[in-house]
Write a structure and sequence with these properties.
The complex is a heterodimer. By secondary structure, chain A is α+β, with helices and mostly antiparallel strands. Chain A has one helix spanning 14-21, and strands spanning 2-6, 9-13. The chains are: A alpha+beta, B alpha+beta.
Chain lengths: 22, 319
């Protein structure tokens, strides 16, 4: 759910993080 | 194995460690926590300053591969990086409470957290109870607080009062706290401090249009908030963690996508890429704790809670 595409880009999906922890 | 030296500064101590060259951030962090006897490690981190920007040592990366200051020994500050939503429920160990108490007290005295004069006096009285124990007029003679830094400079300047007048005011409250043990006094301090508007918020200057740094972004235990630059108390807008779908950055731009697909996507610019990385790191960590609080406690936490209850009961008996 956290992805770093390149060194200057990052993304965090709260929805995916929630799903993965359930 | 080859080693390098680091100095770790906590809120009340300085420690030196020899680290192996191959150590990751986590190895050093765990060693510091073990040395302190701290188990509620998830609130804390090792902070350093590089090119004027605060940064936190990454756990999964080798210490020496991170952009840390080139000094010998390398210095880190061991500080709370994340704050609980409710101190009285989440801070279990006495050492955790004590470190939070010292850190928040410093923020209030340094005016990083704004606090009204009335509340600063009440807070000071709990700090005095924690330090000196019960008030005894035979022992605590006028002038006994002269050496202590108890109130923010702004408050001292705001009124035409002598140090003795302040001491009298604080002592009047202090005398009311008779019978309160050190850990209770520190917890009472934190319970009041956590209701202050600026408590636990990490602020970052941002701009919605280039060349206008007109807003502040705040990240805390509950979510992300947007403030006018001249009002850090009440946000214009808030995004609770449970209402956010995704947070992403590209260079200096940061995007917050709400869960509600019809709601407007919030885009803004921070001062540098490094700051965006820090903002995202704080969002991930705070959101992780937010989810953790809403799940069943782990066995470790259940044990710690039981231990904390027993310890409290024992102390009360002793007291």
């Amino acid at each position: 759910y956290f992805a770093r595409k390149a060194n200057h880009k990052g993304s965090y999906s709260l929805v995916d993080a929630l799903k993965s922890k359930v | 194995p080859k080693t390098f030296k680091v100095k770790v500064i906590t809120m009340d101590a300085e420690m030196e460690f020899s680290c192996e060259m191959k150590w990751k951030g986590k190895d050093l962090f765990d060693l510091v926590c073990r040395t302190l006897g701290l188990r509620e490690t998830w609130f804390f981190g090792l902070q350093y300053t590089i090119k004027g920007v605060c940064a936190w040592l990454k756990m999964e990366k080798k210490v020496l591969e991170q952009e840390i200051p080139k000094e010998d020994p390398t210095q880190f500050r061991f500080l709370a990086k994340f704050y609980p939503e409710k101190v009285e429920e989440e801070l279990l160990q006495e050492i955790t409470q004590h470190l939070f108490f010292l850190q928040v007290k410093k923020q209030i005295l340094d005016e990083e957290i704004h606090c009204s004069p009335e509340v600063t006096v009440l807070l000071a009285s709990y700090a005095v109870q924690a330090k000196y124990g019960d008030y005894d007029p035979n022992f605590h003679k006028p002038g006994f607080l002269i050496q202590d830094e108890l109130l923010p400079k702004r408050v001292l300047k705001q009124y035409q009062m002598t140090v003795h007048m302040w001491e009298e005011k604080i002592t009047a409250w202090y005398a009311e706290h008779r019978g309160i043990a050190r850990d209770e006094a520190e917890m009472n301090y934190l319970k009041i401090a956590q209701d202050l508007a600026m408590y636990g918020v990490n602020y970052f200057p941002i701009e919605q249009n280039k060349n206008h740094r007109d807003l502040l972004l705040g990240v805390d235990a509950k979510g992300i908030h947007v403030y006018s630059i001249n009002n850090r108390f009440s946000p214009n807008r808030s995004f609770e963690w449970s209402a956010i779908r995704n947070i992403s950055y590209s260079e200096k731009e940061l995007t917050i996508k709400p869960l509600d697909k019809k709601a407007e996507v919030f885009k803004f610019f921070s001062s540098q890429l490094k700051v965006n990385k820090l903002i995202l790191q704080l969002c991930i960590g705070n959101h992780d704790l937010f989810m953790k609080r809403r799940r069943v406690d782990s066995i470790e936490i259940q044990q710690m809670k039981a231990q904390a209850r027993e310890e409290k009961a024992r102390k009360k008996m002793e007291h």
